[in-house]
Automatic annotation (TrEMBL):
Belongs to the IF-3 family. InterPro entries: T_IF-3_C_sf, T_IF-3_N_sf, Translation_initiation_fac3_CS, Translation_initiation_fac_3, Translation_initiation_fac_3_C, Translation_initiation_fac_3_N. Residues 160-244 form the Translation initiation factor 3 C-terminal domain. GO terms for biological process: ribosome disassembly. Keywords: Initiation factor, Protein biosynthesis. Transmembrane segments: none annotated. Residues 85-152 form the Translation initiation factor 3 N-terminal domain. Residues 244-256 have a biased composition (Basic and acidic residues). Pfam families: IF3_C, IF3_N. GO terms for cellular component: cytosol; membrane. Residues 235-276 are annotated as: Disordered. This is Unannotated protein.
Length: 276
C-alpha cells in the first residue's frame, strides 16, 4: 500500500513514482509544519486504486487527530492505459491537433472544450513531458487499432512446441504407421517431436528392441526430421527428440498439388488428300 499525503493539490504520476508518497517528510508542507491549518488532505492509495476506480478523500483534522471521509472522489487510471479527458491532471498541456499539427501550450480546460467541439477525446500521449503532450483523437478507435496490431503481431510469432509420441517395443504395424503419420504432421507444422519408447518388466533388459523401433520411424520420416537429442535410456523409457529439418512447406505442397498441370499444345497434323 502506498500512502500519499496531498497538501492542497494532487501529486503528479512522476512524483508518486519517485517518492511513493506526497509530500515527502522533508517537504516544507508536510504534516506538522503548518500549524495554522486546521484540515489537511490524506489519501490512502491501495493496490485496488492502482488498477483503476474511485478513491475517497479523507480529511485529517490536526486538532482532533481523526480522519473524516467526505464524498469527494478522484478517478485513478490503470497504469497500462493513457489518461484521457477528465483524467488528465495537468493544468496545461502541449496540444496536438487531430491531423498531427502543433497547436501549442493550452490550458487543459480549453483543450477539453476543443476536443468536445470536434466530438473527439483528449488523450495524454507523453505524460512525462513538461508540460504533458496531449493529442485530440478518437480514443475508442485508437484502442481498437492498438488491439488489432497486438493481435497481428501474436499471429506472426511462431510458437514452437514439443509434441510427444509414445511407442511400445511390441507395437503392431498399423499402430506404428499411425504414430509415424502423426509425427510427420507435427514436423510439417514446425513442431519438435519427443519420441518415448516405454518398456515393461523384463523388456528393459533388451534396449535393442527400442532402438530398432526408433530407427524404423526415422527411416519412414526420411529427410523431414533431424535428430536433435540422441536416443538415451532414462529408467524404463527410451527417449529421442526430433526437430524439423526444413521450414514447413505443407501449404505450398497442397497448392502445387491442387494446381492444374499445363498441357502443351498439340502439333498440327496434315491430312493427306486422296488423288482423284
Amino acid at each position: 500500500m502506498v500512502l500519499s499525503w496531498l497538501i492542497g493539490r494532487y501529486p503528479s504520476s512522476r512524483q508518486l513514482n519517485e517518492v511513493g508518497f506526497w509530500p515527502p517528510p522533508s517537504h516544507p508542507k508536510a504534516f506538522g509544519s503548518a500549524p495554522g491549518r486546521d484540515c489537511e488532505r490524506l489519501v490512502l492509495l491501495s493496490s485496488a486504486s492502482r488498477i483503476g476506480g474511485y478513491v475517497p478523500h479523507p480529511r485529517f483534522s490536526m486538532k482532533e487527530g481523526v480522519a473524516h471521509c467526505t464524498r469527494e472522489t478522484v478517478i485513478v487510471t490503470p497504469q497500462n492505459e493513457p489518461r484521457y479527458n477528465e483524467r488528465i491532471r495537468a493544468r496545461e498541456v502541449r496540444l496536438i491537433g487531430p491531423d498531427g499539427s502543433q497547436v501549442g501550450i493550452r490550458p487543459t480546460a480549453d483543450a477539453l472544450v476543443l476536443a468536445r467541439e470536434l466530438d473527439l477525446d483528449l488523450v495524454e500521449v507523453a505524460p512525462l513531458a513538461n508540460p504533458p503532450v496531449c493529442r485530440i483523437m478518437d480514443y475508442g478507435k485508437f484502442r481498437y487499432e492498438e488491439a488489432q496490431k497486438a493481435k497481428e503481431s501474436r499471429k506472426k510469432t511462431t510458437h514452437v512446441t514439443v509434441k510427444e509420441v509414445k511407442f511400445r517395443p511390441k507395437i503392431g504395424k498399423g499402430d506404428f504407421d499411425t504414430k509415424v503419420r502423426h509425427m510427420r504432421d507435427f514436423l510439417e507444422d514446425g513442431h519438435k517431436v519427443k519420441v518415448t519408447l516405454q518398456f515393461r518388466g523384463r523388456e528393459v533388459a533388451h534396449p535393442e528392441l527400442g532402438a530398432r523401433i526408433l530407427d524404423a520411424a526415422l527411416e519412414q520420416l526420411g529427410p523431414l526430421a533431424k535428430v536433435e537429442t540422441q536416443a538415451r535410456l532414462e529408467g524404463r523409457n527410451m527417449t529421442m527428440v526430433l526437430s524439423p529439418d526444413k521450414k514447413p512447406a505443407k501449404k505450398n505442397e497442397k497448392e502445387q498439388s491442387g494446381s492444374t498441370p499445363q498441357v502443351a499444345p498439340a502439333e498440327p497434323t496434315t491430312e493427306s488428300q486422296d488423288s482423284q
